Amino acid sequence: MLETALVSCDDHLDLNMLPANVLADRMSAKWGERAPRVDIPDDGPASWIADGNRWGFWAGKKVEQKGPKPLLTAFDRGGVEDLTELRAGHPKLRLADMDRDQVWAHVVYGPVTSIKSEDPEFTAEAYAAYNDWLYEDYCAEAPDRLIGVAMLPPQPEMAHAELERLAKKGGCRQANLQIAVCEPRLEDKRWEPVFRLLEESGIVLSFHVTVFPKAGDAFDKYKGSPGATFLHAKMFIEQFLDPFVDLFAWGLLERHPGVKLVIAECGAGWVPWVVEELDYRHHRLWECADYWADKGGVPHEMKPSEIFKRQIYGTFQQSPTTMALTDFWGPDNLLWASDYPHPDSIWPNSVPTINRTMGHMDPAQVARIVGGNAAKLYGLDLSKATVRARLDVGNDRAAA
Q: What is the spatial distance between Cα 277 and Cα 271, in angstroms, rounded to a whole number?
Protein backbone atom coordinates (compact mmCIF):
# COMPACT_ATOMS: atom_id res chain seq x y z
CA MET A 1 0.00 0.00 0.00
CA LEU A 2 1.29 3.45 -0.98
CA GLU A 3 -0.06 6.70 0.46
CA THR A 4 0.90 9.63 -1.73
CA ALA A 5 -0.33 12.94 -3.18
CA LEU A 6 -1.62 12.70 -6.73
CA VAL A 7 -0.87 15.49 -9.21
CA SER A 8 -2.84 15.25 -12.44
CA CYS A 9 -0.84 16.93 -15.21
CA ASP A 10 -3.51 17.29 -17.89
CA ASP A 11 -6.90 18.66 -16.87
CA HIS A 12 -9.22 21.17 -18.47
CA LEU A 13 -11.17 24.35 -18.21
CA ASP A 14 -13.00 24.64 -21.52
CA LEU A 15 -14.97 27.53 -22.92
CA ASN A 16 -18.26 25.83 -22.08
CA MET A 17 -17.39 25.98 -18.36
CA LEU A 18 -16.07 29.55 -18.19
CA PRO A 19 -18.15 32.09 -16.24
CA ALA A 20 -19.84 34.34 -18.79
CA ASN A 21 -18.14 37.59 -17.79
CA VAL A 22 -14.55 36.32 -17.62
CA LEU A 23 -13.24 37.80 -20.86
CA ALA A 24 -15.41 40.88 -21.43
CA ASP A 25 -14.75 42.21 -17.91
CA ARG A 26 -11.00 42.26 -18.60
CA MET A 27 -11.08 43.57 -22.17
CA SER A 28 -11.27 47.18 -23.28
CA ALA A 29 -14.70 48.80 -23.48
CA LYS A 30 -13.80 49.94 -26.99
CA TRP A 31 -14.71 46.51 -28.37
CA GLY A 32 -18.39 47.04 -27.57
CA GLU A 33 -20.53 44.31 -29.07
CA ARG A 34 -17.45 42.63 -30.47
CA ALA A 35 -16.38 41.62 -26.95
CA PRO A 36 -16.83 37.95 -25.99
CA ARG A 37 -20.29 37.30 -24.55
CA VAL A 38 -22.72 34.47 -23.99
CA ASP A 39 -25.81 34.46 -26.17
CA ILE A 40 -28.74 32.76 -24.42
CA PRO A 41 -31.68 32.28 -26.80
CA ASP A 42 -35.17 31.46 -25.57
CA ASP A 43 -35.02 28.15 -27.37
CA GLY A 44 -31.89 26.18 -27.99
CA PRO A 45 -28.47 26.02 -26.34
CA ALA A 46 -26.40 29.01 -25.26
CA SER A 47 -23.26 29.95 -27.18
CA TRP A 48 -20.17 32.10 -26.88
CA ILE A 49 -20.17 34.88 -29.50
CA ALA A 50 -17.19 37.15 -30.13
CA ASP A 51 -16.04 39.46 -32.91
CA GLY A 52 -18.65 38.09 -35.28
CA ASN A 53 -17.74 34.45 -34.64
CA ARG A 54 -19.45 31.66 -32.75
CA TRP A 55 -16.76 30.37 -30.39
CA GLY A 56 -18.63 27.40 -28.99
CA PHE A 57 -21.21 25.98 -26.60
CA TRP A 58 -21.84 27.33 -23.08
CA ALA A 59 -23.15 24.96 -20.42
CA GLY A 60 -24.64 27.59 -18.11
CA LYS A 61 -28.09 27.19 -19.62
CA LYS A 62 -29.80 23.88 -19.01
CA VAL A 63 -30.55 21.93 -22.18
CA GLU A 64 -32.76 18.88 -22.09
CA GLN A 65 -31.07 15.85 -23.59
CA LYS A 66 -33.32 13.99 -26.00
CA GLY A 67 -32.35 10.37 -26.37
CA PRO A 68 -29.03 8.66 -25.65
CA LYS A 69 -25.80 10.66 -25.85
CA PRO A 70 -23.27 9.82 -28.57
CA LEU A 71 -20.39 10.90 -26.32
CA LEU A 72 -19.99 10.64 -22.55
CA THR A 73 -17.85 12.96 -20.44
CA ALA A 74 -16.40 12.39 -16.99
CA PHE A 75 -19.41 14.21 -15.55
CA ASP A 76 -21.73 11.66 -17.17
CA ARG A 77 -19.74 8.77 -15.74
CA GLY A 78 -19.55 10.49 -12.37
CA GLY A 79 -23.30 11.05 -12.14
CA VAL A 80 -23.19 14.85 -12.54
CA GLU A 81 -26.32 15.73 -14.48
CA ASP A 82 -26.57 19.49 -13.93
CA LEU A 83 -23.76 21.24 -15.82
CA THR A 84 -25.18 24.73 -15.26
CA GLU A 85 -23.04 25.04 -12.13
CA LEU A 86 -20.02 25.16 -14.48
CA ARG A 87 -18.12 22.94 -12.05
CA ALA A 88 -14.79 23.00 -13.86
CA GLY A 89 -14.92 26.80 -14.06
CA HIS A 90 -15.66 27.44 -10.39
CA PRO A 91 -12.62 26.67 -8.24
CA LYS A 92 -14.54 25.59 -5.13
CA LEU A 93 -16.62 23.07 -7.09
CA ARG A 94 -13.56 21.86 -8.97
CA LEU A 95 -11.68 21.37 -5.70
CA ALA A 96 -14.62 19.33 -4.39
CA ASP A 97 -14.40 17.15 -7.50
CA MET A 98 -10.66 16.76 -6.95
CA ASP A 99 -11.25 15.73 -3.34
CA ARG A 100 -13.78 13.15 -4.52
CA ASP A 101 -11.14 11.75 -6.89
CA GLN A 102 -8.43 11.82 -4.16
CA VAL A 103 -6.31 14.13 -6.32
CA TRP A 104 -4.32 16.91 -4.67
CA ALA A 105 -3.47 19.11 -7.68
CA HIS A 106 -4.60 19.74 -11.25
CA VAL A 107 -2.52 21.22 -14.06
CA VAL A 108 -5.28 23.19 -15.78
CA TYR A 109 -5.28 23.72 -19.56
CA GLY A 110 -7.57 26.43 -20.92
CA PRO A 111 -9.96 26.48 -23.88
CA VAL A 112 -8.35 24.83 -26.90
CA THR A 113 -8.58 26.75 -30.19
CA SER A 114 -11.64 28.68 -28.99
CA ILE A 115 -10.36 32.24 -29.42
CA LYS A 116 -11.03 32.99 -33.09
CA SER A 117 -10.58 36.46 -34.59
CA GLU A 118 -8.86 37.96 -37.63
CA ASP A 119 -7.96 41.06 -35.58
CA PRO A 120 -4.51 40.67 -33.96
CA GLU A 121 -5.18 43.32 -31.30
CA PHE A 122 -8.49 41.72 -30.33
CA THR A 123 -6.88 38.27 -30.24
CA ALA A 124 -3.98 39.41 -28.07
CA GLU A 125 -6.32 41.10 -25.61
CA ALA A 126 -8.59 38.05 -25.38
CA TYR A 127 -5.66 35.75 -24.59
CA ALA A 128 -4.36 38.20 -21.99
CA ALA A 129 -7.83 38.52 -20.43
CA TYR A 130 -8.11 34.74 -19.99
CA ASN A 131 -4.59 34.40 -18.60
CA ASP A 132 -5.03 37.23 -16.10
CA TRP A 133 -8.34 35.82 -14.86
CA LEU A 134 -6.79 32.35 -14.63
CA TYR A 135 -4.00 33.45 -12.30
CA GLU A 136 -5.54 36.40 -10.46
CA ASP A 137 -8.98 34.95 -9.75
CA TYR A 138 -9.22 31.24 -10.50
CA CYS A 139 -5.93 29.67 -9.39
CA ALA A 140 -5.64 32.19 -6.56
CA GLU A 141 -8.39 30.24 -4.79
CA ALA A 142 -5.87 27.43 -4.17
CA PRO A 143 -2.50 28.23 -5.78
CA ASP A 144 -0.86 25.09 -4.40
CA ARG A 145 -3.56 22.89 -5.97
CA LEU A 146 -4.64 24.67 -9.17
CA ILE A 147 -1.65 24.97 -11.52
CA GLY A 148 -2.86 27.12 -14.38
CA VAL A 149 -1.43 26.75 -17.89
CA ALA A 150 -1.39 30.06 -19.75
CA MET A 151 -2.66 30.18 -23.33
CA LEU A 152 -0.31 31.54 -25.99
CA PRO A 153 -1.53 32.77 -29.40
CA PRO A 154 -0.48 30.44 -32.23
CA GLN A 155 1.72 32.98 -34.07
CA PRO A 156 5.33 33.60 -32.94
CA GLU A 157 5.27 37.37 -32.50
CA MET A 158 2.00 37.37 -30.57
CA ALA A 159 3.10 34.35 -28.53
CA HIS A 160 6.35 36.09 -27.62
CA ALA A 161 4.56 39.27 -26.57
CA GLU A 162 2.16 37.41 -24.28
CA LEU A 163 4.91 35.21 -22.86
CA GLU A 164 7.01 38.29 -22.13
CA ARG A 165 4.04 39.94 -20.40
CA LEU A 166 3.42 36.83 -18.28
CA ALA A 167 7.08 36.49 -17.35
CA LYS A 168 7.16 40.09 -16.11
CA LYS A 169 3.99 39.59 -14.03
CA GLY A 170 5.25 36.33 -12.50
CA GLY A 171 3.26 33.36 -11.29
CA CYS A 172 3.13 31.47 -14.60
CA ARG A 173 4.70 28.00 -14.41
CA GLN A 174 3.65 26.71 -17.84
CA ALA A 175 2.37 28.12 -21.14
CA ASN A 176 0.68 26.20 -23.93
CA LEU A 177 1.02 26.49 -27.69
CA GLN A 178 -1.87 24.81 -29.49
CA ILE A 179 0.59 23.23 -31.86
CA ALA A 180 -1.96 21.87 -34.36
CA VAL A 181 -2.85 25.41 -35.45
CA CYS A 182 0.49 27.17 -34.98
CA GLU A 183 1.85 28.98 -38.03
CA PRO A 184 4.51 28.95 -39.36
CA ARG A 185 6.15 25.61 -38.56
CA LEU A 186 8.71 25.54 -35.78
CA GLU A 187 11.62 25.44 -38.24
CA ASP A 188 10.89 29.11 -39.00
CA LYS A 189 13.37 31.49 -37.34
CA ARG A 190 10.45 33.62 -36.15
CA TRP A 191 9.99 31.11 -33.30
CA GLU A 192 13.56 31.53 -32.04
CA PRO A 193 12.76 34.46 -29.68
CA VAL A 194 9.97 32.40 -28.10
CA PHE A 195 12.32 29.53 -27.26
CA ARG A 196 14.94 31.97 -26.04
CA LEU A 197 12.44 33.64 -23.70
CA LEU A 198 11.18 30.29 -22.42
CA GLU A 199 14.73 29.38 -21.49
CA GLU A 200 15.40 32.73 -19.84
CA SER A 201 12.13 32.77 -17.87
CA GLY A 202 12.07 29.11 -16.83
CA ILE A 203 8.43 28.82 -17.91
CA VAL A 204 7.62 25.29 -19.06
CA LEU A 205 6.25 24.99 -22.61
CA SER A 206 3.51 22.54 -23.55
CA PHE A 207 1.90 21.25 -26.72
CA HIS A 208 -1.64 19.94 -26.20
CA VAL A 209 -3.72 17.87 -28.57
CA THR A 210 -7.01 19.11 -29.96
CA VAL A 211 -9.75 17.30 -31.86
CA PHE A 212 -10.99 20.42 -33.64
CA PRO A 213 -8.63 21.92 -36.22
CA LYS A 214 -8.11 20.10 -39.52
CA ALA A 215 -10.28 17.26 -38.23
CA GLY A 216 -13.63 18.56 -39.36
CA ASP A 217 -13.36 17.33 -42.93
CA ALA A 218 -12.64 13.78 -41.82
CA PHE A 219 -15.43 13.77 -39.27
CA ASP A 220 -17.95 15.49 -41.53
CA LYS A 221 -17.47 12.83 -44.17
CA TYR A 222 -18.28 10.05 -41.72
CA LYS A 223 -20.66 11.98 -39.43
CA GLY A 224 -23.08 9.60 -37.76
CA SER A 225 -20.84 6.61 -38.38
CA PRO A 226 -19.29 4.59 -35.52
CA GLY A 227 -16.11 4.47 -37.56
CA ALA A 228 -15.50 8.20 -36.98
CA THR A 229 -14.70 7.42 -33.34
CA PHE A 230 -11.52 5.63 -34.41
CA LEU A 231 -10.18 8.70 -36.23
CA HIS A 232 -9.05 10.16 -32.89
CA ALA A 233 -6.32 7.54 -32.69
CA LYS A 234 -4.84 8.87 -35.92
CA MET A 235 -5.30 12.58 -35.29
CA PHE A 236 -3.73 12.60 -31.84
CA ILE A 237 -0.44 11.39 -33.28
CA GLU A 238 -0.47 13.22 -36.61
CA GLN A 239 -0.90 16.60 -34.88
CA PHE A 240 2.31 16.04 -32.93
CA LEU A 241 4.54 14.20 -35.37
CA ASP A 242 5.75 17.13 -37.50
CA PRO A 243 6.42 19.56 -34.62
CA PHE A 244 7.95 16.81 -32.49
CA VAL A 245 10.46 15.89 -35.21
CA ASP A 246 11.08 19.59 -35.93
CA LEU A 247 12.33 20.06 -32.36
CA PHE A 248 15.27 17.78 -33.18
CA ALA A 249 15.69 18.26 -36.93
CA TRP A 250 16.25 22.00 -36.61
CA GLY A 251 18.12 21.89 -33.31
CA LEU A 252 15.56 23.88 -31.28
CA LEU A 253 16.01 21.98 -28.04
CA GLU A 254 19.73 21.43 -28.52
CA ARG A 255 20.22 25.20 -28.88
CA HIS A 256 18.02 25.84 -25.85
CA PRO A 257 18.91 23.20 -23.25
CA GLY A 258 16.99 25.02 -20.52
CA VAL A 259 13.61 24.64 -22.24
CA LYS A 260 11.31 22.03 -20.71
CA LEU A 261 8.46 20.75 -22.90
CA VAL A 262 5.37 18.75 -21.94
CA ILE A 263 3.57 16.89 -24.73
CA ALA A 264 0.06 16.46 -23.37
CA GLU A 265 -2.71 14.01 -24.22
CA CYS A 266 -1.11 12.75 -27.42
CA GLY A 267 -0.29 9.34 -25.97
CA ALA A 268 3.13 8.18 -24.86
CA GLY A 269 3.42 4.78 -26.54
CA TRP A 270 4.33 6.02 -30.02
CA VAL A 271 7.21 8.21 -28.83
CA PRO A 272 9.93 5.57 -28.26
CA TRP A 273 9.99 4.37 -31.86
CA VAL A 274 10.17 7.92 -33.19
CA VAL A 275 13.06 8.83 -30.87
CA GLU A 276 14.81 5.58 -31.76
CA GLU A 277 14.47 6.41 -35.45
CA LEU A 278 15.75 9.94 -34.84
CA ASP A 279 18.81 8.47 -33.14
CA TYR A 280 19.39 6.27 -36.17
CA ARG A 281 19.15 9.26 -38.53
CA HIS A 282 21.56 11.15 -36.28
CA HIS A 283 24.00 8.24 -36.62
CA ARG A 284 23.63 8.32 -40.41
CA LEU A 285 24.53 12.02 -40.44
CA TRP A 286 27.71 11.51 -38.47
CA GLU A 287 28.55 8.40 -40.47
CA CYS A 288 28.98 10.77 -43.40
CA ALA A 289 30.65 13.58 -41.46
CA ASP A 290 33.33 13.92 -44.16
CA TYR A 291 30.63 14.69 -46.72
CA TRP A 292 29.05 17.37 -44.53
CA ALA A 293 32.39 18.90 -43.48
CA ASP A 294 32.68 21.15 -46.52
CA LYS A 295 28.98 22.09 -46.25
CA GLY A 296 29.24 23.61 -42.80
CA GLY A 297 29.41 20.44 -40.74
CA VAL A 298 26.74 18.71 -38.67
CA PRO A 299 25.32 21.01 -35.97
CA HIS A 300 23.46 18.14 -34.27
CA GLU A 301 25.99 17.09 -31.65
CA MET A 302 23.76 15.33 -29.11
CA LYS A 303 21.76 12.20 -29.80
CA PRO A 304 18.02 12.95 -29.94
CA SER A 305 17.38 10.42 -27.18
CA GLU A 306 19.73 12.35 -24.87
CA ILE A 307 17.96 15.63 -25.63
CA PHE A 308 14.60 13.95 -25.16
CA LYS A 309 15.39 12.64 -21.68
CA ARG A 310 16.86 15.99 -20.68
CA GLN A 311 13.95 18.17 -21.80
CA ILE A 312 10.70 16.40 -22.77
CA TYR A 313 7.89 15.12 -20.55
CA GLY A 314 4.76 13.22 -21.56
CA THR A 315 1.32 12.81 -20.01
CA PHE A 316 -0.97 9.80 -20.07
CA GLN A 317 -4.23 8.74 -18.40
CA GLN A 318 -4.28 4.97 -18.44
CA SER A 319 -1.87 3.01 -20.58
CA PRO A 320 -0.43 -0.44 -19.88
CA THR A 321 1.68 0.11 -23.01
CA THR A 322 3.27 3.19 -21.48
CA MET A 323 3.90 1.31 -18.25
CA ALA A 324 5.84 -1.24 -20.28
CA LEU A 325 8.03 1.57 -21.65
CA THR A 326 9.14 3.19 -18.41
CA ASP A 327 12.78 2.24 -19.04
CA PHE A 328 12.70 4.35 -22.18
CA TRP A 329 11.00 7.32 -20.53
CA GLY A 330 13.29 7.20 -17.53
CA PRO A 331 12.49 7.96 -13.89
CA ASP A 332 11.55 11.64 -14.25
CA ASN A 333 9.73 12.23 -17.54
CA LEU A 334 6.34 10.52 -17.24
CA LEU A 335 3.43 12.55 -15.85
CA TRP A 336 0.15 10.92 -14.88
CA ALA A 337 -3.16 12.71 -15.63
CA SER A 338 -6.89 12.31 -15.11
CA ASP A 339 -8.01 14.55 -18.06
CA TYR A 340 -10.90 15.98 -15.98
CA PRO A 341 -13.63 16.46 -17.18
CA HIS A 342 -13.15 15.38 -20.80
CA PRO A 343 -14.62 12.29 -22.50
CA ASP A 344 -11.28 10.46 -22.16
CA SER A 345 -11.10 11.28 -18.45
CA ILE A 346 -10.82 8.65 -15.72
CA TRP A 347 -12.42 10.95 -13.10
CA PRO A 348 -13.80 10.09 -10.55
CA ASN A 349 -12.05 6.70 -10.75
CA SER A 350 -8.40 7.74 -10.73
CA VAL A 351 -7.36 5.56 -7.80
CA PRO A 352 -8.85 2.27 -9.07
CA THR A 353 -7.46 3.03 -12.53
CA ILE A 354 -3.95 3.58 -11.13
CA ASN A 355 -4.29 0.39 -9.10
CA ARG A 356 -5.31 -1.58 -12.18
CA THR A 357 -2.58 -0.27 -14.50
CA MET A 358 0.29 0.26 -12.04
CA GLY A 359 -0.45 -2.25 -9.29
CA HIS A 360 2.45 -4.49 -10.37
CA MET A 361 5.00 -1.67 -10.28
CA ASP A 362 7.49 -0.57 -7.64
CA PRO A 363 5.79 1.89 -5.23
CA ALA A 364 8.66 4.37 -5.44
CA GLN A 365 8.37 4.45 -9.21
CA VAL A 366 4.59 4.90 -9.02
CA ALA A 367 4.99 7.76 -6.52
CA ARG A 368 7.21 9.61 -8.99
CA ILE A 369 4.86 9.09 -11.93
CA VAL A 370 1.64 10.08 -10.15
CA GLY A 371 3.02 13.15 -8.39
CA GLY A 372 6.74 13.29 -7.68
CA ASN A 373 7.83 14.13 -11.22
CA ALA A 374 5.26 16.92 -11.42
CA ALA A 375 6.40 18.30 -8.08
CA LYS A 376 9.97 18.48 -9.38
CA LEU A 377 8.95 20.05 -12.71
CA TYR A 378 6.58 22.66 -11.25
CA GLY A 379 8.21 23.30 -7.89
CA LEU A 380 5.40 21.86 -5.75
CA ASP A 381 5.77 20.94 -2.08
CA LEU A 382 3.77 17.73 -1.75
CA SER A 383 4.55 17.47 1.95
CA LYS A 384 1.83 20.11 2.42
CA ALA A 385 -0.82 18.08 0.58
CA THR A 386 -3.88 17.45 2.74
CA VAL A 387 -5.47 15.13 0.17
CA ARG A 388 -3.57 11.88 -0.26
CA ALA A 389 -4.53 8.71 -2.09
CA ARG A 390 -4.02 5.17 -0.82
CA LEU A 391 -2.81 3.08 -3.75
CA ASP A 392 -2.67 -0.69 -3.95
CA VAL A 393 0.66 -0.97 -5.74
CA GLY A 394 3.79 -3.08 -5.42
CA ASN A 395 1.95 -6.34 -6.06
CA ASP A 396 3.54 -9.25 -7.87
CA ARG A 397 1.08 -9.39 -10.75
CA ALA A 398 0.81 -8.28 -14.36
CA ALA A 399 -1.01 -5.10 -15.34
CA ALA A 400 -4.59 -5.58 -16.48
A: 10
Encode pLDDT of 229-285 as tens digits. Answer: 787 778 888 889 999 999 999 999 999 999 999 999 998 999 999 999 999 999 999
User: Above 60 in pLDDT, residue 150?
Assistant: yes
* Strand locations in the chain (E): 2-4, 7-12, 37-39, 46-50, 53-58, 105-109, 146-152, 174-177, 204-208, 261-264, 312-316, 334-336, 389-391
Element (H, E) at 308: helix 304-311
Number of separate helices (H) and strands (E) present in the chain: 16, 13
DSSP 3-state assignment of 189?
helix
Closest CA to 96 of 149, 131, 141: 141
pLDDT, tens digit, 9 for 90 and up, residues 94-136 = 999 999 999 999 999 999 778 889 999 999 999 999 999 999 9
Amino acid present at 318: Q
C-alpha distances in angstroms, 155 versus 206, 331, 400?
15, 34, 43
**Residues counted in the chain:** 400
Percent of the chain residues topping a pLDDT of 70? 95
Q: Give the pLDDT band (50/70/90) at residue 139.
A: very high
| Angstrom distance (rounded) from CA 108 to CA 17 | 13
Cα–Cα nearest to 269, from 323, 308, 229:
323
pTM: 0.95
Q: Which helix (H) or strand (E) holds 380?
A: none
* Domains annotated on the chain, with CATH: 2-391 (3.20.20.140)
Q: 197 to each of 205, 314, 374, how far by Cα in Å?
A: 11, 22, 22
Other beta carbons within 10 angstroms of residue 308's beta carbon come to: 27
pLDDT at 91 over 50: yes
Residue pair 15/58 in contact (Cβ under 8 Å)? The answer is yes
Task: Please report, for residues 19, 120, 132, 145, 175, the alpha-carbon distance to residue 138 in angstroms, rounded to integers and kept in the order given.
Answer: 11, 26, 9, 11, 16
> Across-strand partners of 39?
47
pLDDT tens track for 331-378 = 999 999 999 999 999 999 999 999 999 999 999 999 999 999 999 999
